[in-house]
C-alpha cells in the first residue's frame, strides 16, 4: 500500500507523527544502512514528542530541545547524521502539504574538524593483518576493504554469487542502488579462497555461530546456517584490534596511498566511485607518512654529513677541493 494512503487513512486533516513516519519509510527507496540510520533518528524524535503528535504541532523549539537532549553531547558527525535524517523526513512532509512551517529552522549542521591523520601507514596495516591471533574472517575483510577501497557496508552485503574469483572482482550495490564493480589484489585473493572454504552461495562474511533469531531473508548461509556478519560487530572488532581505527579509514588509506603513488584523479574517481571529483581532493593530498619521508630525504644535517663524507673521500684520492 502506498505510504501516503496509510498516512491519510487514519486521520482526517493533518496526519499524526506515527502515520507520517510510516508513510515516509513506505515511500522512500533507501539502502539498508540508510534506512537503519534514519530509523534510529526518527524513532528518537517520536519517542520524545509522542507518536500521536499532530504534525502541525511539530514546532522548531520542541524539535531543537529533542536534538539537544538526544545528541547535544555527542560527536558532530552523529548530530549531522541525525540532522540529515530528520531534514529528509521534514522535506517529505512539506512536499505532501502536511507541514506548512519548517521545524528545522533552529537546527544547523555542526562543523566537523578535519582529521589530517586519517590515512593509516601501510606498514601498520601490514602488521595488523599479519598479526597472530586475528581470525581469518577479519583478516580477509580488512584486506578486502583496503584493496577495493569500498565502503564497509558494500562489502559486508556481498554474497558468494557476486564474486568473480578468477578475475578478482565483485559486483556490489553502491550508493543509490546502482550495480558497480570493485577489484582486489592477490593479498585478498589468497585469504578469500580460504575464508569461503568451498561455499558457493550465501553471505561472504558470516558470524562464527548460528544466530538465536532466524536471519532476514538472504542473510543466512545455506551451507552452515550462520548469519551475515553485521556492520556493528565488524566495526567493533576492528576498533578493538587496531586500537581505535575505523573501517572507513581502510577506504581512506587505500585512496591516499594510491594518490601518493601517482594515481591520477580520474583513476581515483573510478576506484572510489565518487560522483564529484572535488571530493577526491583529500585523497590526492599526501598523507603524514609521505610528508615525513620527504622531510627525512631533505634533512639538512643528513645531507651535510653525506656531503662531508664525499669530500673526505675525494680529498684522500688527491682531488683538488678547496678546504682539503
Helix share of residues? 40-55%
Beta content = under 5%
Structural class, by secondary structure, is mainly alpha
Give the oligomeric state: single chain
User: Compute the gyration radius: what is it?
Assistant: 27 Å
- Overall, the morphology is globular
Task: Give the number of helices.
Answer: 15
Uncertain residue ranges: 1-11, 319-324
Count of individual beta strands: 3
**H/E element string?**
HHHHHHHHEEEHHHHHHH
Description:
- It contains 15 helices and 3 strands.
- It is globular.
- It has about 325 residues and is mostly helical.
- It is about 55% helix and about 5% strand.
- It has helices at about 5-10, 15-25, 30-50, 60-70, 75-95, 120-130, 135-150, 150-155, 185-195, 230-240, 245-260, 265-270, 280-285, 290-295, 300-315; strands spanning about 165, 170-175, 180-185.
- The N and C termini lie far apart (about 95 Å).
- A 3-stranded antiparallel beta sheet has the order 1-2-3, with no helix packed on it.
Helices and strands, with pairings:
Elements: H1 3-10, H2 17-27, H3 32-49, H4 60-71, H5 76-95, H6 122-129, H7 136-148, H8 152-156, E1 163-164, E2 169-173, E3 179-183, H9 186-196, H10 231-242, H11 247-260, H12 265-272, H13 281-284, H14 288-297, H15 300-316
Antiparallel strand pairs: 1-2, 2-3
Helix pairs in contact: 1-2, 3-4, 3-5, 7-9, 7-11, 11-12
Short description:
This protein has helices at 3-10, 17-27, 32-49, 60-71, 76-95, 122-129, 136-148, 152-156, 186-196, 231-242, 247-260, 265-272, 281-284, 288-297, 300-316, and strands at 163-164, 169-173, 179-183.
Amino acid at each position: 500500500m502506498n505510504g501516503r494512503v496509510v498516512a491519510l487513512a487514519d486521520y482526517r486533516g493533518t496526519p499524526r507523527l506515527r502515520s507520517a513516519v510510516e508513510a515516509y519509510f513506505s515511500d522512500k527507496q533507501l539502502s539498508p544502512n540508510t534506512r537503519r540510520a534514519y530509523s534510529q533518528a526518527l524513532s528518537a524524535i517520536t519517542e520524545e514528542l509522542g507518536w500521536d503528535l499532530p504534525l502541525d504541532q511539530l514546532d522548531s523549539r520542541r524539535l531543537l530541545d529533542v536534538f539537544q537532549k538526544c545528541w547535544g553531547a555527542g560527536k558532530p558527525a552523529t548530530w549531522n547524521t541525525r540532522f540529515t535524517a530528520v531534514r529528509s523526513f521534514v522535506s517529505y512532509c512539506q512536499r505532501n502539504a502536511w507541514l506548512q512551517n519548517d521545524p528545522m529552522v533552529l537546527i544547523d549542521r555542526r562543523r566537523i574538524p578535519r582529521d589530517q591523520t586519517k590515512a593509516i601507514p601501510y606498514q601498520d596495516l601490514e602488521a595488523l593483518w599479519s598479526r597472530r591471533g586475528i581470525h581469518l574472517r577479519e583478516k580477509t575483510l580488512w584486506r578486502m576493504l583496503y584493496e577495493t577501497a569500498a565502503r564497509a557496508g558494500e562489502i559486508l552485503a556481498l554474497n558468494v554469487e557476486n564474486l568473480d574469483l578468477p578475475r578478482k572482482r565483485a559486483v556490489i550495490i553502491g550508493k543509490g542502488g546502482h550495480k558497480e564493480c570493485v577489484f582486489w589484489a592477490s593479498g585478498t585473493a589468497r585469504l578469500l579462497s580460504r575464508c569461503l572454504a568451498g561455499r558457493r552461495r550465501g553471505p561472504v562474511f558470516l558470524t562464527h555461530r548460528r544466530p538465536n533469531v532466524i536471519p532476514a531473508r538472504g542473510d543466512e548461509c545455506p551451507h552452515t546456517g550462520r548469519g551475515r556478519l553485521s556492520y556493528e560487530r565488524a566495526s567493533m572488532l576492528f576498533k578493538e584490534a587496531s586500537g581505535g581505527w575505523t573501517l572507513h579509514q581502510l577506504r581512506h588509506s587505500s585512496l591516499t596511498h594510491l594518490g601518493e603513488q601517482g594515481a591520477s584523479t580520474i583513476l581515483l574517481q573510478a576506484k572510489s566511485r565518487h560522483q564529484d571529483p572535488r571530493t577526491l581532493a583529500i585523497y590526492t593530498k599526501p598523507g603524514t607518512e609521505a610528508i615525513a619521508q620527504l622531510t627525512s630525504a631533505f634533512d639538512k644535517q643528513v645531507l651535510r654529513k653525506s656531503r662531508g663524507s664525499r669530500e673526505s673521500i675525494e680529498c684522500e684520492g688527491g682531488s683538488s677541493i678547496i678546504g682539503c
